[in-house]
Design goal:
The complex is a heterodimer of chains A (319) and B (260). Chain A is an alpha/beta fold and 319 residues long. Chain A has helices spanning 16-28, 67-81, 92-105, 211-224, 233-237, 268-274, 303-318; strands at residues 3-6, 9-10, 13-14, 33-38, 53-57, 85-89, 108-113, 115-119, 122-129, 134-140, 145-149, 166-169, 181-186, 200-204, 228-231, 258-262, 279-284, 297-300. Chain A is 26% helix and 28% strand. Chain A has a seven-stranded parallel β-sheet, sandwiched between helices. The termini of chain A are far apart. Chain B has 260 residues and is α/β, with parallel strands linked by helices. Chain B has one domain: HUPs (Rossmann fold), CATH 3.40.50.620. Chain B contains six helices and 13 strands. Chain B has helices spanning 37-51, 69-76, 96-109, 129-137, 191-197, 242-255; strands at residues 2-6, 9-11, 33-35, 57-63, 82-86, 112-118, 140-151, 154-160, 166-172, 175-179, 202-205, 221-227, 236-237. In chain B, the strands form two sheets. A nine-stranded mixed β-sheet of chain B has the order 9-8-7-10-6-1-4-5-11, sandwiched between helices. In chain B, strand 4 (57-63), helix 2 and strand 5 form a beta-alpha-beta unit. In chain B, helix 3 crosses helix 4. The longest helix of chain B is centred in the first third of the chain and has 15 residues, at 37-51. Classes of the chains: A alpha/beta (319), B alpha/beta (260). At the A-B interface, helix 2, helix 3, strand 7, strand 10 and strand 13 of A face helix 3, helix 4, strand 7, strand 8 and strand 9 of B. The structure holds flavin-adenine dinucleotide and adenosine monophosphate (AMP).
Amino acid sequence: MGILVLCETDGGQPRKSAFELLGKAKALGLGPVTALVLGPADVTSLGGHGADAVLHYDNAVLASHSTGTAVKAIANAVAATGASVVLGSASNVTRDAFPRLSARLGAGLAVECTDLRVAGGKLVGRRPVFAGKALVDVKVQSAVALFTVRPNSFPVAASTGATAPVTTGDGGVSGSDVDVKVVQTLAPESKQVDLTEADRIVSGGRSLKSKESFDAVIRPLAAAVHATPGASRAAVDAGFAHHGDQVGQTGKVVNPSLYIAMGISGAIQHLAGMRTSRIIVAVNKDPDAPIFQFATYGIVGDLFEYAPLLQAEFQKTLA
Amino acid sequence: MKIGVCLKQVPATDTRVIINPTATGIVTNDVKWEINPYDEYALEEAARQKTAGKGTEVVILTVGGAQTEQRLRDALAKGADRVVRIEDAALDGSDALGYARALAAAAKAEDIGVLFCGRQAVDGDNGAVPAMIAEILGWSQVTWIDKLGIEGTSFTANRAAGGGAKEVVTGSLPAVFTCDKGLNEPRMTKLPDIMAAKKKPIVVKNLDALGLSAASVAPVVVEDAMSLPPARPAGRKLTGDAPSVARELVRLLREEAKVI
Ligand SMILES: Cc1cc2nc3c(=O)[nH]c(=O)nc-3n(C[C@H](O)[C@H](O)[C@H](O)COP(=O)(O)OP(=O)(O)OC[C@H]3O[C@@H](n4cnc5c(N)ncnc54)[C@H](O)[C@@H]3O)c2cc1C
Ligand SMILES: Nc1ncnc2c1ncn2[C@@H]1O[C@H](COP(=O)(O)O)[C@@H](O)[C@H]1O
């Protein structure tokens, strides 16, 4: 019975995603909610966001993610709490650990859900498939069910100020459980907010013609509106931008408030990666470009003419 | 050491999605099938590791019907030596765990020492099967790699961490790697390779041949109620001379859309 919520931390504090999950878990009403924290961290805020209890595996071995230690510790937490549902945020940690946990426990898994609801006493996950071209309900029939949820799927309520009892332990893991070991962390190539977390994105396509013009046109325009630069696959394949900058079905799936597409045709694979953006602006010289079917605001025109004009207007407005 | 590659056939990424009458999947009559794009990186990596002397043979493992064989021939032309295709009626309605059990059993039977998979299959977008295989076999795994070096039984790989960061990790084989864009540039096929691929063996195995029962691949996950995402409200085109259009757009973004 009950829900176990894997609460990831950053710099010793729970991530925002942990509060999202705890709030939702509590609202689902499927029994007691236990927050699981791996590695040393400050866990005092979890009770105020919906945790009835905190299980803190305060073990330094768990501070850096290794598949071997994480999976073993989470499996031990499932056994200790008797939880029938395990929730985690969709992240590099859960994409590594949850499928493995699924195989270890014979527990069904639904990844990257964007909504959760209870039907007939069971949790149902709703998730995008085909890069968001369709949505599907996922029902898990095993005794234990595992779900990961995309960040920002649920709101975070203000803390109630409640405190939850904390049980500490070592998670039953030690250094000998580390299999794949992190030897170095490389900082992101750019200092900008990562595309997947960006609130504003300005993307350029093949029409930019060269890396030099991509750098001279798209990057300053993005900077003017405090956006992260992105690119179509055609632009990435032509070497104008880095692999990590690609938006689309085989690039990054993004969800900003503002997405500005400069000289991008709007191929189905590109749309798949950005169609949920709240406001989409398209500048394209072809009035029939498919991107216009998705654009909130469309401008038919030459991007090389519009980019400097927009850049100046943004600078004026945001100054 | 033998090198394995898991290849899945998926609808081409430009497929227009039409939901089937039971809302359990999409209509596939007119679908063009392709090798999952991320599996192309897995295949290329396997072929390169073999060329670099890290393995003796590249074996493709796949769960799928006879209609996948043309795409498998294409893959054989890109540096693989043979295919084990797993087909069984019990796998038709299976789930990620079921496919993983079948693929893990095949990897074991083939005595594979390193297995390359795609980061995710772009139909279900799960990214679950490879780590499940690793767990079933008791192997290490590294997900979303864009760099790999193998020395003897040790490896060093770069994997994606959160927020655009990368982690350099080390471990030892046997292991499963899931391959991301940027790991390599998949090759184009040349005519002699296509000709040679016609003679390479494709062996078909059912669950029985892999020592698995139908019950062991019975699904624990069921998908239904598939629907299309809500349509976007119609947008509008701004017209006029360029400077006033630019000014108007920025005004709308601030005052109407309230995003800046
Ligand atoms: C397996 C697979 C996966 C794929 N995954 C992705 C993906 O993840 N992301 C992705 O983006 N694509 C992806 N694609 C590629 C996709 O199909 C398109 O080829 C690509 O998105 C096109 O990029 P583009 O819009 O920059 O170029 P084009 O389609 O060439 O469009 C250029 C556009 O710029 C306009 N233009 C030209 N000059 C100007 C100018 N001066 N001013 C204004 N407008 C101008 C043109 O009218 C045109 O609409 C994938 C394809 C395949 C087969
Ligand atoms: N039916 C299958 N046959 C062969 N390989 C598969 C199959 N399903 C998944 N895989 C492998 O597992 C990876 C991830 O798939 P998935 O977990 O379905 O997103 C794919 O890129 C393939 O390498």
